[in-house]
User: Which sequence fits this backbone?
């Protein structure tokens, strides 16, 4: 087992990679814990849950809504949960987002922890303390920064993921290699078959590397005012693709990463060989494809993007595999390159 610690504003959060999720009991307070999960995770693992009250949500983005938070908060009140309560999320990114947001606002904040069951959640969503829900077609625009007490990343849980969910998580893993830890990218490149076969030891190593990098970034910049912005690589376009086409998050971000790599070549930050290497790895896992989003719709999404600053946006480029670069650009410049890159006009 590997333990990675995040220290932010006097709060310590620990991420435990390789710890069996079935030992979560030893991490919980003596009383007052409520489990939040989704219907799919409960069907697979529910018979092994700690004997505690369980609140279930529907799987997928449709549960990242304020009305779901309101319903869950009402259920917490009905159970008598007070400020000494504790929420345990068992699930993927949506479950962790919903539980983390709910815990951060219920009674003005109660403690919480995660059992992270998906690759996307283990390498990204459950680490770093960002908890948010969507507003209409705008993704993650209502949220908080609040750290969980702990995150358990048991890579054996990844064996039960549907293929599309697993591949979606791989996109975020590859992203981390592109922006900050070249070894993740190279190990992934060299172990395609083993990764497709979900070899637990290899995945534990890659998840640990990803968590260590993200913990370093978050410890330095919890509220995303500087360095943490690099974690949004591929997300400027990715969120637009995700919300417009209902693609899974990782597949949409993969399209965003290809666009950002192309834009990085256009700006002279990287060469075509590096760009082609990135695109090649994404293609090896069949992460690219789908119809392009109309430029007008992309502009609408970007105008609601939380990375926007007036008429500008903080866009993440790459200088080389393993090194990201933040530049503030006019949104119209990004849109014009998107239009040219998509239509050739």
Assistant:
């Amino acid at each position: 087992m590997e333990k990675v610690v995040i220290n932010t504003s006097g709060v310590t959060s620990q991420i435990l990679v390789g710890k069996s999720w079935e030992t979560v009991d030893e991490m919980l307070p003596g009383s007052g814990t409520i489990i939040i999960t989704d219907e799919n995770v409960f069907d697979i693992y529910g018979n092994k849950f700690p004997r505690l009250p369980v609140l279930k949500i529907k799987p997928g983005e449709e549960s990242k809504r304020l009305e779901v938070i309101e319903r869950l908060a009402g259920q917490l009140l009905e159970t008598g949960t007070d400020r000494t309560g504790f929420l345990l999320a068992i699930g993927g990114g949506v479950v962790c987002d919903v539980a983390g947001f709910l815990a951060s606002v219920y009674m003005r904040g109660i403690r919480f922890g995660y059992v992270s069951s998906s690759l996307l959640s283990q390498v990204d969503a459950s680490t770093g303390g960002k908890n948010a829900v969507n507003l209409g077609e705008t993704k993650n625009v209502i949220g908080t920064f609040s750290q969980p007490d702990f995150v358990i990343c048991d890579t054996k849980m990844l064996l039960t993921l549907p293929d599309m969910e697993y591949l979606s998580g791989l996109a975020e893993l590859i992203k981390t290699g592109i922006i900050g830890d070249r070894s993740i990218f190279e190990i992934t490149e060299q172990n395609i078959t083993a990764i497709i076969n979900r070899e637990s030891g290899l995945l534990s190593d890659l998840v640990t590397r990803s968590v260590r990098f993200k913990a370093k970034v978050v410890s330095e910049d919890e509220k995303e005012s500087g360095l943490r912005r690099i974690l949004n690589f591929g997300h400027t376009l990715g969120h637009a693709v995700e919300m417009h086409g209902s693609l899974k998050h990782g597949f949409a971000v993969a399209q965003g990463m290809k666009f950002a790599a192309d834009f990085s070549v256009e700006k002279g930050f990287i060469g075509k060989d590096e760009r082609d290497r990135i695109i090649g790895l994404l293609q090896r896992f069949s992460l690219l494809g789908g119809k392009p989003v109309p430029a007008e719709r992309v502009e609408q999404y970007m105008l609601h993007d939380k990375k926007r600053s007036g008429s500008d946006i903080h866009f993440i480029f790459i200088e080389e595999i393993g090194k990201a670069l933040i530049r503030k650009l006019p949104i119209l410049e990004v849109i014009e390159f998107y239009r040219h890159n998509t239509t050739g006009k």
In short: The first helix runs from residue 39 to 45. The mean pLDDT is 93.
